[in-house]
């Protein structure tokens, strides 16, 4: 399982949106989206 797939799985298990996760860890929602799509791992 790739990082993005695992992130989606864990985020959904916790019932969090991309925006909620981003706010929790202090990044933008766009960054979470890129991680989940495999566009960027930075």
UniProtKB/TrEMBL annotation:
PANTHER family referenced in this protein's UniProt entry, alphabetically: HTH-TYPE TRANSCRIPTIONAL REGULATOR XRE, TRACRIPTIONAL REGULATORY PROTEIN-RELATED-RELATED
UniProt-listed InterPro entries: Cro/C1-type_HTH, Lambda_DNA-bd_dom_sf
Lineage of source species: Bacteria, Bacillati, Bacillota, Clostridia, Lachnospirales
Keywords attached to this entry: DNA-binding
Cross-referenced Pfam families: HTH_3 (PF01381)
Taxonomic source organism: Anaerostipes butyraticus
Keyword Chaperone: no
The organism's place on the tree of life at top rank: Bacteria
Name used for this protein in its record: HTH cro/C1-type domain-containing protein
Signal peptide positions on this chain: none
Domain spans labelled HTH cro/C1-type: 7-38
Keyword Transmembrane: no
Molecular-function GO terms, alphabetical: DNA binding
């Amino acid at each position: 399982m790739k990082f993005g797939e695992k992130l989606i799985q864990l985020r959904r298990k916790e019932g969090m949106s991309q925006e909620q996760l981003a706010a929790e860890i202090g990044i933008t929602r766009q960054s979470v989206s890129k991680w989940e799509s495999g566009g960027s791992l930075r």
